[in-house]
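[scheduler] slot 2 assigned
[scheduler] job type: sequence-to-structure, two independent chains
[scheduler] chain ordering preserved from manifest
[runner] begin chain α
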Amino acid sequence: MSFQEKSNLAILVITAGVFGWYFGIVIPPFFDLETAPPAAAVGGLLIGLALFLVALTVIAHILLAALSPKQADQSDERDRAIETRADARSGYVLAVGAVLSLGLLVFGAAPFWAANALLASLAASEIAKGVLRAIDYRRGF
């Protein structure tokens, strides 16, 4: 398994775990589409989410680079092709999510829900990209 593939799997697990944790905390207590919690109640959690996501990603990459230092700087044409292909395909997930998020506003949902739907579509896009890259690495693009 190449460094790029290990990195992809680490980011995939971290992204799914952190966003799953965030939405597991935020969504259940406020599951009424017409009302929303005060911004102060979720703002600190969202900032913590971003910092936690960055910290876990940095730690994962440091560990992966320490375990295989020779592969850490190597990226070939196949890695770039897999990345480009996954980016292009996961963009559709983000586009559909963005349109649906705007649809929430059109139908009268609180802006909190539209913002979280947009965040969920961003997370879904990143998870889709990670899954698509993993499939391409395993299938042999």
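[runner] end chain α
[runner] begin chain β
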Amino acid sequence: MTKHARFFPFLYKLSLSIGLAIGTFFVSMMLGAADTSFKEVWLSVASDVKTDTITMLREIRLPRVTAAVFVGAALGVSGAVMQGLTRNPLADPGLLGLTAGANAALALTLALIPSANYFALMIACFLGAAIGALLVIGIGMMKKNGFSPLRLVLAGAAVSAFLYAVSEGIALRYKISKEASMWTAGGLIGTTWSQLQPIVPLIILSICIAFLLSRQLTLLSLNEELAIGLGQKITQIKFALMIVIILLAGASVALVGNLAFVGLMIPHIARVFVGTDYRYILPMSAVLGATFLLAADTLGRTLNAPFETPVAAIVSVLGLPFFLFIVRKGGKA
């Protein structure tokens, strides 16, 4: 099959996915504790009209929905990059220590620097995610054979449990359990434009870098020797891709807390539609991740309105069976 013969079906599928994401965006804006009309949603996005409802949409619901779009895209892309880089179908920032590391660093920062602003907390999350990743990769490479999917998952589970325990211990010792829980529970409640300003450009930049390296990632996901034979500088590429993963995972935790399984599920769903080429998987993962998190957040707001069901709980209910399915499928293989 020629390049153009593959590209045009992908473009068609991506366009349909973007259309679905836009539709989900407007539904998410309309539904919640206070249901609104499509006209009010449109005016809140495309005009300067000011009414109580439109102001609510513009200042409360729109930042939240925007956060869902970018965090969903970030988690989808970071999961896809991790799975390609480690050749591990179970790879996910929430399962391999990055999220737990970011949580521990955030708790430590809240305890030691109570006056830390949002930018400082974001930097702490990046450093924590990097430490979590290094611990998991270090443990995963301790044996001669290096990475294996099972060893990485076990190392991720052990490191995550340890770092979550560190986070809880810090919260109890410094009596900041309430503050730490509000940050790490996994939710989009209370997202503001001031929080989005430093995070969104970073997510966009990181995703663009991942797209630029998608061809190299495809080669790495197939065979490292093949990538070296084709002249790829795999050490530099791996380092750049790990930085992308850390930035995307750290930004996601800084904005909405712990949301496991999104980065696991979305790349697998994307592969069903576009195959194994990461030039197609990454854009599709970004769009599907945004759509999925928008839908999950909308469900959380509407299931028991005016009360909220935590979006992390909804994602976990969907993600755990998917995880077990992938484990079973991998075991058979």
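[runner] end chain β
[qc] chain β: The domain at 68-332 is CATH 1.10.3470.10 (ABC transporter involved in vitamin B12 uptake, BtuC).
[scheduler] slot 2 released
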